[in-house]
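User: For my dataset I need records formatted as: sequence, then structure tokens, nothing else. Please produce one.
Assistant:
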Amino acid sequence: MKDAAGKKSIFDSVADLYDIARPEYPVSLIDDLVENSGIKVSSRILEIGTGTGFLTRALALKGFTVTGIELGSKLAQKARLNVPKFTNVTILEGDFDTEELEPDSYDLVVAATSYHWLDPLKRGQKIRNIVSKGGTAAIIETRHIDNGRDTFPVSSQECYLKWDKNTTAEFRLPGRDEVVKDGFRYSSEFRDGFEKTINKNYGTDVEYTASEYRQLLSTYSDIILMEDPSREGLLECLTDMIDKNYGGKITKSYLWQLFLMKKK
């Protein structure tokens, strides 16, 4: 069993697959991040947990200077390969939790699908320390939801109950309204020193073939941490279900959430 530090580094073992299978962030989310944070071409931006550079590349294409910090060496290298022509991007290999960073040094600090992996006892305070006065802290969350139309999220539980010992019979994906109503689950960590949170939501449906969905699942932490034969059994069960019961394709619904906090 991996400890917390080990778990947050597991994505490095699937860096190539992560780059292929994970979805891009919505263009409208990127536009809103830029507009509502008020960043300019001269602004200093830090991205926590760059992964293979989805957000990094999107910001670089808009002309912004971005420093990214990524724990995984293979992920960091992949991110560098994805932004080779941009002289305005620097990808550092390191752990945000332990990295020494100058106070008030960034106009925008953003964690995209990475904040939950940071040390909960330090992350909010550390971000508050490194954001400049009037600067912005931004958290992007990727949520998996039940769109209420497709039956696969429910029927797929048959496979999880058979192969994943951590799945309970009561588990279900939340609907969009339920997630939106929950709001910002880390709000208590940004009460001191920040103004009111701006919250925006972006829904997207993505179609996957059975093999594409298998690739996607293979980049999820809970799947990576499963041991064979359970992991292989689960993936085979889901692949067979999609091929036999859904004509070889399913639709997965995402809800991206953007939370922005201005430092007083």
